[in-house]
Design brief:
Elements lengths: L7 H4 L3 E2 L6 H5 L2 H10 L2 E4 L4 E4 L2 H9 L14 H7 L8 H12 L4 H25 L1 H8 L13
Parallel strand pairs: 1-2
Antiparallel strand pairs: 2-3
């Protein structure tokens, strides 16, 4: 679990009772995300006893400064899961992270992906044709289900 000994009042970080994990927030995250962003780039989530980064620049800063924010201490909200992931790419630092990442990234380098182009392009064309036949909004939701409504802004 997140470190609940942190005291957001000492850091002058805004706090919020909002819960980004309710069904309502997961199905339509934009109002809650907007409200959290309006509070500031870092917000203390009271329910979870943890900080939430609400703006792109804050997220990038934290991700790029692994010495100040070491992922080896954990990146999940649950200590047991952090223990499971310790030493894996997601929860590793410095040279260990670089070595693990090289192994994981090798299959997705531009050269490796270029080799698959002749196989992937026909399959992608089939999916796009099927999407056009179904209807743009429904098809995008079916093809890109990573986040409810996560396809907003895609061309029809």
């Amino acid at each position: 679990m997140a470190d609940t000994t942190m005291n957001p009042s000492r850091t002058k970080v805004p706090t919020s009772p909002l819960d980004p994990y309710t069904d309502e927030a997961l199905l339509n995250p934009w109002p809650l995300e907007r409200e959290l962003r309006e509070k500031g780039p870092i917000v203390w989530l009271e329910k979870y006893g943890m900080f939430a980064l609400t703006r792109y620049d804050a997220v990038v800063k934290v991700l790029r400064d692994w010495e100040a924010f070491p992922p080896s201490f954990g990146v999940m909200m649950h200590d047991d899961m952090n223990q499971v992931l310790r030493g894996k790419t997601l929860c590793s630092d410095g040279d260990a992270h670089s070595q693990l990442r090289r192994v994981v990234m090798r299959p997705v380098t531009p050269f490796a992906l270029h080799v698959l182009q002749d196989e992937v392009e026909p399959e992608a064309s089939k999916l796009l044709s099927a999407a056009r036949a179904i209807g743009s909004r429904v098809a995008r939701s079916a093809l890109i289900p990573s986040r409810p409504g996560g396809t907003e802004g895609l061309a029809a």
